[in-house]
């Protein structure tokens, strides 16, 4: 649902006033000292190169909708993890609430994503680190120190990226060994107990070997307490993480090199803030059969909604850890042909859970653990000629993982004596479950582009993908462990054309087919009959766009798209479908999405620049097949705001000493949205506006800097998710609260 016109006007007025206030203040009190200063915007689109099509090219030349965030922009905006990226890209929304663990990231692009993290489900948006696909959403809210850039590809990426990129892909690119010769140390301290350090080294060992190494630590206090636990391990919303990465590039010969990389992280935190909101009708404490939780009343909830009311020790804390290793071999066969082989292994495990009733009563507790190991190998053969180039490859992926919950969880009729009113035993321990799945995925693809003339380029690609999944599950309602197997396959493709106008602007048009693999429902508490496969989802995307400089000082990226989805998989909770928090996944017959995306940089002067982004999305289900329950025509996908806005002004001042003073602000707006794909007023997530700033002093030689920063300066408290249950809605709240601090960075030449 979109805001009213008054809301739109209010939002735009805030943007206008913000820009005017910054402009007037700076122009009235500061004066630029140098007329030869470079343009203020170091993130000028004209200078950005991307690798979205697995080839290096200008952002303007790539015939697809891409947002590229540079290292400098992310540092100035205090982007420290993937969740923060979701504030600055049109039609991108990232929420983190899986199993109460803030290391989880639900990524939605153009209305496509996945709310759940259970091993039997797969995301609708792919996340890649240096070409390596990350199969799990849990742990994908990665810290982003010493990153070269983050590319967000919007729309189906079925040819070059394949499975589970129905909505798009996020490509994280690290700084490569040998790209620079520098060592640096960065320290951040701030309110809420913020402490962060980052050590980085990049340089040559000798003529043939280069290394890049980084180590990071960050922590922050929580926003609430576990008020009914004597010695809680963590505060609610607390964050603490160690991470590191080591990469080495070995130039074996002039045309053959090996890149080795290993990384790891260990995150221990507090559960995400969680509370409940009673709905009409609310549970009647005198009637054991009225709702799932007849003993739950509002007076049992903590007065502070950020506090946790559970009495289950350990449920207030979360943990996630993982590591990965990869080897990339690059061989330039000759001036035309090259090959690349990427092999990788990654492993992860997590602990989390929610107390669904948010009270001291042992009504619905879901402590949860999970793990996943994955292996992948990709062989590419690429060619570059005078007027055409191509990228081709073979890809294999294997993942094995599990999710478990216990020892006691769903007890809907819990009484002090663990008996129902008729004297029978309650359902204590009812909600345990154990899921396991192994996935094998194979793909072969080719993509090419051809220059018909100096101004006109056409291209396209083709990919065949096949997925095989073997899953087994045990739930209390199952007579025995259930075993399931399914195969999914699809041919995806894209065609595109790009033309450079006489004024230098680039226009493009493309048609893409995308694919998301099918799977099995994550929580079939209602019985083994619910543990059945849902089908794969396919899409056709029609898109046209404009890129380039529309004036000497104005760069523009614009895209208009229309996407049709067939059998869109929509997960939603159904508290009436059996005991426990039942999550059903249904394939909607047909759905559509249409929208507009605009990104612009404006160099107002040599010292003052603006970066802005606007996204509009209208997405709805248009047809529901027979016997599909829970979703209806006109419903919109979950966690999909209609409007997304970003506004980031920057002003630079040259001081008499030769040093530089920079003033930067950033504003992000996400419209209201539904917590699930089933329209329910109780699950509407309100809109949110986030405002931040950064005041930076950079020394004469540019070797050190000091920044004063502010994040979420208006202290906006917003919902990450809303999940309907009988008699109430469970609400996962943000821990992204107001923070002010100082950031110091020192670089050393090596």
Automatic annotation (TrEMBL):
<dbReference type="Pfam" id="PF07715">
    <property type="entry name" value="Plug"/>
</dbReference>
<dbReference type="InterPro" id="IPR039426">
    <property type="entry name" value="TonB-dep_rcpt-like"/>
</dbReference>
<feature type="domain" description="TonB-dependent receptor plug">
    <location>
        <begin position="60"/>
        <end position="169"/>
    </location>
</feature>
<keyword id="KW-0410">Iron transport</keyword>
<keyword id="KW-0998">Cell outer membrane</keyword>
<keyword id="KW-0798">TonB box</keyword>
<keyword id="KW-0406">Ion transport</keyword>
<feature type="domain" description="TonB-dependent receptor-like beta-barrel">
    <location>
        <begin position="268"/>
        <end position="713"/>
    </location>
</feature>
<keyword id="KW-0675">Receptor</keyword>
<keyword id="KW-0408">Iron</keyword>
<dbReference type="InterPro" id="IPR000531">
    <property type="entry name" value="Beta-barrel_TonB"/>
</dbReference>
<keyword id="KW-0812">Transmembrane</keyword>
<keyword id="KW-1134">Transmembrane beta strand</keyword>
<dbReference type="Pfam" id="PF00593">
    <property type="entry name" value="TonB_dep_Rec_b-barrel"/>
</dbReference>
<dbReference type="InterPro" id="IPR036942">
    <property type="entry name" value="Beta-barrel_TonB_sf"/>
</dbReference>
<dbReference type="GO" id="GO:0006826">
    <property type="term" value="P:iron ion transport"/>
</dbReference>
<comment type="similarity">
    <text>Belongs to the TonB-dependent receptor family.</text>
</comment>
<protein>
    <submittedName>
        <fullName>TonB-dependent receptor</fullName>
    </submittedName>
</protein>
<feature type="signal peptide">
    <location>
        <begin position="1"/>
        <end position="32"/>
    </location>
</feature>
<dbReference type="InterPro" id="IPR012910">
    <property type="entry name" value="Plug_dom"/>
</dbReference>
<dbReference type="GO" id="GO:0009279">
    <property type="term" value="C:cell outer membrane"/>
</dbReference>
<keyword id="KW-0813">Transport</keyword>
<keyword id="KW-0472">Membrane</keyword>
<keyword id="KW-0732">Signal</keyword>
């Amino acid at each position: 649902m979109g805001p009213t016109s008054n809301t739109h006007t209010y939002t735009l007025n805030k943007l206008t006033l913000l820009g005017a206030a910054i402009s007037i203040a700076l122009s009235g009190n500061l004066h630029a000292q140098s007329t030869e200063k470079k343009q203020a915007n170091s993130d000028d689109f004209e200078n950005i190169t991307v690798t979205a099509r697995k080839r290096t090219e200008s952002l303007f030349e790539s015939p697809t909708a891409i947002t590229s965030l540079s290292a400098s922009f992310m540092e100035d905006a205090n982007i420290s993890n993937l969740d923060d990226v979701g504030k600055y890209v049109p039609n991108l929304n990232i929420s983190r609430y899986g199993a109460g663990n803030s290391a989880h990231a639900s990524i939605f692009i153009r209305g496509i994503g996945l709310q759940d993290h259970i091993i039997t489900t797969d995301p609708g948006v792919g996340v890649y680190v240096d070409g390596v696909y990350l199969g799990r959403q849990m742990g994908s809210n990665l810290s982003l120190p010493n990153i070269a850039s983050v590319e967000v590809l919007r729309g189906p990426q079925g040819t070059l990226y394949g499975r589970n990129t129905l909505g798009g892909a996020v490509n994280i690119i690290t700084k490569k060994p040998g790209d620079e010769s520098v060592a640096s140390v960065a320290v951040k301290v701030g309110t809420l107990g913020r402490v962060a350090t980052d050590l980085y080294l990049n340089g040559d060992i000798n003529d043939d070997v280069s290394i890049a190494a980084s180590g990071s630590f960050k922590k922050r206090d929580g926003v609430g307490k576990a008020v009914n636990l004597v010695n809680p391990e963590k505060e609610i919303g607390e964050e603490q993480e160690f991470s590191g990465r080591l990469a080495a590039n070995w130039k074996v010969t002039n045309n053959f090199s090996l890149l080795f990389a290993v990384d790891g992280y260990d995150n221990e935190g507090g559960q995400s803030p969680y509370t409940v909101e009673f709905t009409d009708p609310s549970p009647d404490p005198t009637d054991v059969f009225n709702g799932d939780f007849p003993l739950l009343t509002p007076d049992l909830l903590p007065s502070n909604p950020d506090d946790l009311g559970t009495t289950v020790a350990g449920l207030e804390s979360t943990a996630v850890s993982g590591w990965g290793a990869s080897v990339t071999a690059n061989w330039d066969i000759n001036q035309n042909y090259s090959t690349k082989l990427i092999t990788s292994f990654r492993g992860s495990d997590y602990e989390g859970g929610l107390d669904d009733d948010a009270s001291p009563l042992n009504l619905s507790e879901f402590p949860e653990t999970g793990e996943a190991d994955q292996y992948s190998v990709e062989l590419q053969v690429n060619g570059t000629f005078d007027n055409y180039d191509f990228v081709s490859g073979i890809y294999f992926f294997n993942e094995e993982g599990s999710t478990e919950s216990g020892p006691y969880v769903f007890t809907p009729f819990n009484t002090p004596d663990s008996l129902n009113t008729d004297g029978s035993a309650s359902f204590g321990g009812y909600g345990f479950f154990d899921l396991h799945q192994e996935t094998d995925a194979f793909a072969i693809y080719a993509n090419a582009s051809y220059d018909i003339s100096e101004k006109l380029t056409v291209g396209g690609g083709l990919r065949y993908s096949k997925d095989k999944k073997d899953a087994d599950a045990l739930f209390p309602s199952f007579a025995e462990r259930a075993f399931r197997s399914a195969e999914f396959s699809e041919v995806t493709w894209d065609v595109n054309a790009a033309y450079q106008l006489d004024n230098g602007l680039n226009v493009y048009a493309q048609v893409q087919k995308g694919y998301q693999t099918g799977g099995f429902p994550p929580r079939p508490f209602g019985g083994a009959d619910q543990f059945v496969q849902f089908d794969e989802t396919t899409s056709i995307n029609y898109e046209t766009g404009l890129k380039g400089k529309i004036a000497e000082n104005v760069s523009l990226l614009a895209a208009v798209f229309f996407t049709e989805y067939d059998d869109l998989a929509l997960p939603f909770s159904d508290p009436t479908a059996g005991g426990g928090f039942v999550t059903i996944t249904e394939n909607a017959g047909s759905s559509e999405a249409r929208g507009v995306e605009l990104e612009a940089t404006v160099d107002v002067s040599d010292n003052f620049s603006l970066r802005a982004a606007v996204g509009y999305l209208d997405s709805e289900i248009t047809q529901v097949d027979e016997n599909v329950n829970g979703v209806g025509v006109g419903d919109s996908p979950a966690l999909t705001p209609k409007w997304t806005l970003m506004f980031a002004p920057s002003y630079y001042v040259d001081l008499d000493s030769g040093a530089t003073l920079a003033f930067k602000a950033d504003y992000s707006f996400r419209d209201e949205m539904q917590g699930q794909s089933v329209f329910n007023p109780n699950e509407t997530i309100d809109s949110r506006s986030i405002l931040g700033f950064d005041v930076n002093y950079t020394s004469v030689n540019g070797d050190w800097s000091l920044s004063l920063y502010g994040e979420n300066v208006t202290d906006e408290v917003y919902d990450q998710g809303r999940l309907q249950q009988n008699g109430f809605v469970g609400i996962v709240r943000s821990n992204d609260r107001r923070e002010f601090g100082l950031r110091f960075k020192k670089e050393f030449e090596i």
